[in-house]
Design a protein that fits this description.
Layout (H helix, E strand, L loop, with lengths): L9 E9 L4 E11 L4 E12 L1 H13 L7 E6 L2 H16 L3 E4 L2 E4 L3 H12 L2 E6 L7 H14 L12
Parallel strand pairs: 1-4, 4-7
Antiparallel strand pairs: 1-2, 2-3, 5-6
């Protein structure tokens, strides 16, 4: 049940992981329709990324699977994603996709993913639920395992040249 008291149509569980920050990273989601029990899941990786980018990518990829406006409960251990959606995003948009830093406006990090998450979330009714990471939540643990498994093949690649 969504926190606003209205029924959730789907539950989207997400997680991102990184080996080093930045480093090889993975993202994963599980999308569940509670009324039917149907579920889909996916994961992927990027060779040189950050944990926050992977957390955002998981949410973006999961929401992108929805084909019509849907009531979604987004369940994640990422305070970054949840707080970003509920608190920071409206401010950033009013400030031209910038954030305050020491009294001045600076570009937000991961703007491309935040813009896409904003676009997708606007198509749906999204309620954010935070769960503690690595605390035994079954779907969060499964997403974490999938995200870590997704970046494992990248660990054996030769390191990139210095930038």
């Amino acid at each position: 049940m969504a926190k606003d008291g209205k029924g959730t149509e789907v539950v989207l569980f997400t997680d991102g992981a990184c080996s080093g920050n930045p480093g090889p990273g993975g993202w994963a989601y599980i999308l569940r329709h509670p009324a039917t029990g149907r579920e889909s899941a996916d994961s992927g990786n990027e060779p040189d990324t950050t944990n926050n980018r992977m957390e955002l990518t998981a949410a973006v990829r999961g929401l992108a699977q929805l084909k019509r406006p849907t009531r979604v409960e987004l369940v994640t251990d990422s305070v970054y994603v949840g707080t970003g959606l509920s608190d920071w995003l409206p401010k950033w948009k009013k400030q031209g996709w910038k954030r305050k830093d020491g009294g001045r406006l600076v570009p937000i990090k991961n703007e491309d993913l935040w813009r896409e998450l904003d676009r997708l979330a606007a198509e749906h009714t999204v309620v954010f639920t935070h769960v503690a990471g690595h605390a035994g939540h079954p779907e969060n643990e499964r997403c974490d395992e999938m995200a870590v498994a997704a970046y494992q093949p990248l660990l054996n690649r030769a390191p990139k040249a210095s930038r």
